Amino acid sequence: RSRSCPYLDTINRSLLDFDFEKLCSVSLSHLNVYACLVCGKYFQGRGRKSHAYTHSVEFNHHVFLNLYTLKFYCLPDNYMIVDSSLEDITYVLNPTFTKPDIRQLSSDAKLMRAYDGTTYLPGIVGLNNIKANDYCNVVLQALSHVPPLRNYFLREENYSHIKRPPGDIMILLSQRFGELIRKLWNPRNFKAHVSPHEMLQSIVLCSRKRFQITKQGDPLDLLTWFLNSMNVALNGSKKRNSSKWVLVHFWWAHFLADKELINQHFNLLNTFFKNTNFTPAKTPILTLAKHQYHPLVNLGILTKTFQGEMKIYSRKIPSPETDIKQKLLKEAEYQETMERSPFLYLALDLPAAPLYKDELEHNIIPQVPLATLLAKFNGQSEKSVRNHLYVKNSPYITRLPPYLIFYIKRFTKNLFFIEKNPTIVNFPVTNIDLEELIAVDADVPNTCYDLVANIVHDGDPNEGKGSYRVHILHQSPVPNKWYELQDLHVSDILPQMITLSEAYIQIWALRKGKKADQEN
C-alpha cells in the first residue's frame, strides 16, 4: 500500500468510460476485471501471467482500477494506491446519493460542468443510440423522471437485499436500471452523455431477445414488459389487499378453533410481514386491529406508482331470435355483473383519419381534444363483445395512481404494412381534471394531473423508418422548464410546441393540492 505513486499523472480521465459491459478486452471474461486508467481498456487479473500485467509491461501503463472492489493498483509493482485525488473516478464508476442529495435534485439543481468542458443539467442527459434503440431510450428517459421511481433506485440499499431464486436473471434488470438512473443524475460526470449499453443488454437477455438493440420496437410493448418484469424482479405484488384477506381469515380460524387454518394463515402472515417482526397478539381481534391497516410489505414500488383500478359492468344478452327473450332477461345468468380490474395505463382510441384530401388538394390533419378520448372511461357508453353475446359498459375509475400513463393508439397493423393515424391530440400541459371519470361511490380526493413526460413518434411507422423523441419536465433551476431529448440531442422547448406533436405515450403526475388550487 502506498500513498505516493509516481504514475498518477499518467491517468487520462478523458478516455475513461465505465458505461460499457465490464468484460476483459482479451479473454472476454467478467471475473476480476481491472480498468487501465491510462487508455481506458479492461483487462483481467493482476498476477504475473494475467492480461493486465502483460498490458502494463508492454505499453508502460501502470495505474489500474478494480471495477468491483473500487481499489486502485500499480502494476507491475502490484501495490495498492491510496490517494484522495482518485475519488472522482470511483464516484463516476459508482455514484452514490444520500437522502439530502435526493431532496436537492428537484428543488436546487444546478448546471454542472463535465470534465470535457461541456455543461449539463443532472437528469437531462442524452442517451447513446447504438443502432436502433431509440425506442428504449425514450422509455428509460421518461421513467427516470418519475420522482418515486427515481428516488427508489438512486439508493442501492433499497433493492440490493432482495433475494431471487438461484439462477434467476431478472435480478439484472433492477441492478442495471439502478446503475443507469444514478449515472443519469450524477452531478460529477466526465462527459455530458450516458451510454445505456449494460441496461440494453439486460433487457435483451431478460426478454429472451424479444426486444433488441439492432431492431426498432414498440415503446409501449417495452414499457408494459418492463414494468411487469421489474415488479417481479423486486418481488412485488400486484394485489393490494392480500394482507387484509389473510388477517381476516387468521382471525376467523381462531374463532373456529381450527388449528390447521391457524398454522396455514400464520405462515402466510410471516411471509407478508417478514420485515416487520410480526408477532400475533394473544387475542386474535387485537392482532387484526393492530395490523389490518398496515401497508402491504410486498407491494412493489411500480405498483404503488402506476397501478390504478376501474370497475366494469357487463351483462349477457339473449339471442334476438328467441321468443322468450323477456323471460330470459329475468334469470340470474343475464343479470348485470361488476368486475374490478387493475390497470397500468389507459388506452385512448383515436378517431379514424380522413381518406380524402380537402379542396386545396392537401391532406387534412385532424385534431381531437383529449377530453373526447377520455370519454371512453365515463361509464356511459356500451359495446358488444364476444360475437354480441355480452354487452359491456365503458368502465368507471375507482382509484387513480400517483402517476397515470396514457397510451394513444396511433398504429394499426394489416397484412401488408403498418398504418399511422396522424391525428393531433389537443391537451393542456397542466391541470387536467379527471373528476368526470371517477365512480360516484369512489373516494378519490385529488383528480387533477400535470404532464411530466411525453413520448412522440415522427416519420414513417414501418420498422426502422421512423424515430422517437421524448419531452421531459424539469423543475429546477427554472420551474416548469421543458426539454426535448432525442438520443444524444438535448434542447429546451416551449410547452406550446408539445401539444402540436404526435403524442404516443404520456405520463401524468397527480396534483396533491386541494381543488381550490386550480383557481390559482
Summed up:
The protein is α+β, with helices and mostly antiparallel strands.
Structure, described:
Strand 23 (466-474) and strand 24 form a beta hairpin. The chain is of the alpha+beta class and 520 residues long. Helices cover 27% and strands 22% of the residues. It is built from 15 helices and 26 strands. The protein is elongated, with a radius of gyration of 28 Å. Strands 12, 17, 21, 22, 23, 24, 25 and 26 form an eight-stranded mixed beta sheet that branches. Helix 6 packs antiparallel against helix 7. Mean pLDDT is 82; it is low at 241-258, 272-297 and 514-520. The N and C termini lie far apart (63 Å). It has three domains: 8-90, Herpes Virus-1 (2-Layer Sandwich), CATH 3.30.40; 95-235, Cysteine proteinases (Cathepsin B, Chain A), CATH 3.90.70; 303-352 and 365-510, Cysteine proteinases (Cathepsin B, Chain A), CATH 3.90.70.
Provide key terms for this protein.
520 residues; alpha+beta; Herpes Virus-1; Cathepsin B, Chain A; 3 domains; eight-stranded mixed β-sheet; five-stranded antiparallel β-sheet; 26 strands; elongated; disordered C terminus; mRNA splicing; mRNA processing; ubl conjugation pathway
